Amino acid sequence: xxxxxxxxxxxxxxxxxxxxxxxxxxxxxxxxxxxxxxxxxxxxxxxxxxxxxxxxxxxxxxxxxxxxxxxxxxxxxxxxxxxxxxxxxxxxxxxxxxxxxxxxxxxxxxxxxxxxxxxxxxxxxxxxxxxxxxxxxxxxxxxxxxxxxxxxxxxxxxxxxxxxxxxxxxxxxxxxxxxxxxxxxxxxxxxxxxxxxxxxxxxxxxxxxxxxxxxxxxxxxxxxxxxxxxxxxxxxxxxxxxxxxxxxxxxxxxxxxxxxxxxxxxxxxx
Length: 270
Hints:
270 residues, alpha/beta, 10 helices, 44% helix, globular
């Protein structure tokens, strides 16, 4: 049982993992060590609590911070910029981010929830999973079918507005599917439309999480490459005016330029 809510990242403005040397197993067998620690630790712990109806916010944050500890213990550096922007943004808000891997869904609760109640827009298959489904359902997410885009948009607008009006911020991945590259053409305007409908600010978030690669058969079981840092950067909160096209373009520009700079530093899918 976690005690008080753990503050892994602090109030900002930035966070960078302290220097720590990974263990010999983590250096020799990074993927095996990462998955062994992940599934025997925070995943099993949180899923067991969710099955008992005990997956509250404190437990969610605790498991997320534990996941961050797993990353760092396996040699992955976590770098977060703009935590002060997240802290200062009017709440509730819509957080619009690119979607690169499973890592961000594990890490963001520890980063965002200490500042405000938050949930995700997720696909229905995640809430129906026999093991992890109870965790997702406990978070009161906005659930889309991923069959009919028009119906999904309506669901996000209706259910997302309800969450926002209840004081819950909403994390949206407008790219829909995870991808190691960013394309503005595939970054739809669903987050901007939600923010406009709810009269809520939107907070851009660029991330680079290719340290946890996608598997060929099972996306969640890809290669773990700890030489690549997990990077996150929040932009300034934006108010939506008019139809939101200019704001969506500004968010895309922020994400694209930020990732481009990181790729020059870290390498592209190296």
